[in-house]
Amino acid sequence: MKSSEIIQFWESKYSTVEVAQSNFNLQPFLHGFLSAFSPGHSYHYVANFKNLELKFVSDTVIDFTGVSKEKVTFHDLLAVADDDQHEMIKLKEQVTYDFYFNYLSLEERKKFKVVYLYKMHDPEGRSRIILAQALPLSLDEDGNLENVLSVHTDVSYLCVQPDNSVSYFSLDGRKSYVNINTAQGKFDPDAQPSRNLLDVLTPREKEIVSLLAKGLSSKEISGQLHVSVHTVNKHRKNILAKTQCANTSELVGHCIMAGLLV
Q1: Average of pLDDT values for 191-211?
Q2: Taking 50 as the threshold, does the pLDDT of residue 222 lie above it?
Q3: Cα separation values, 28 from 33, 34, 95, 99, Å
Q4: Model pTM score
Q5: Which CATH number applies to 3-191?
Q6: Which residue, 33, 34, 52, is CA-closest to 43?
Q7: Which residues pair with 166 in a beta bridge?
Q8: Domain residues of the chain, as ranges?
């Protein structure tokens, strides 16, 4: 599977030779939407899927691709993914198209963001695990995809590996679809686990996980939540037992994919 096949899929589903003049401006979206994405070393861009051009690319893209923001293309972004990841990425993109355009209503299409993991090697040859997040910013008058904000974050420090799942998180309180299996290349709302971390953890436990993800110690968490260190440590022990995670890094990784921290 070559990265060009993924681009050909996007071209067949989204792009058109007729690109209308757009009044789209990143500024009204930038601060509100980027605050919804995970922190960490990352790069972002806005993609016009009508002509598959990149806009508003961050300077940091060169750290991941070796190509400057002025010259980087979709081919460059996909070329850094490991060879065994391309088929997986294509399936995730196929299911994502099916979800947005065959499952969601027109009104819902800008109310969900997509999240998945993939593995890549940077220009220095270092292996990285990337958390890819994307959110539609604008649709044309027929409801077709135009501009999409994407953020790719290095989460290699977490004990989580890419698999064939993808998640769709509601931005306005609707039902989210977590860890959807993409093996069949079609969106199946029943293909998500019957139970996930959002069901297992209490509100207080979710709060503690969020603070752990920011790198806070038990002592710092106790001060912020106005509880004893003993109470925080007890919560941490219970959280690991409930989620069957070996340590905090593994816990944070699983919580990201369950939608708790994204």
Answers
A1: 81
A2: yes
A3: 9, 11, 29, 26
A4: 0.81
A5: 3.30.450.20
A6: 34
A7: 180
A8: 3-191, 197-257
- Check residue 173 and give its pLDDT: 84
- Give the length of the chain: 262
Q: Poorest-confidence range of 73-82, 105-114, 209-218, 221-230?
A: 209-218
User: The tokens of 7 are what?
Assistant: 């681009």
CATH-assigned architecture of domain 197-257: Orthogonal Bundle (1.10)
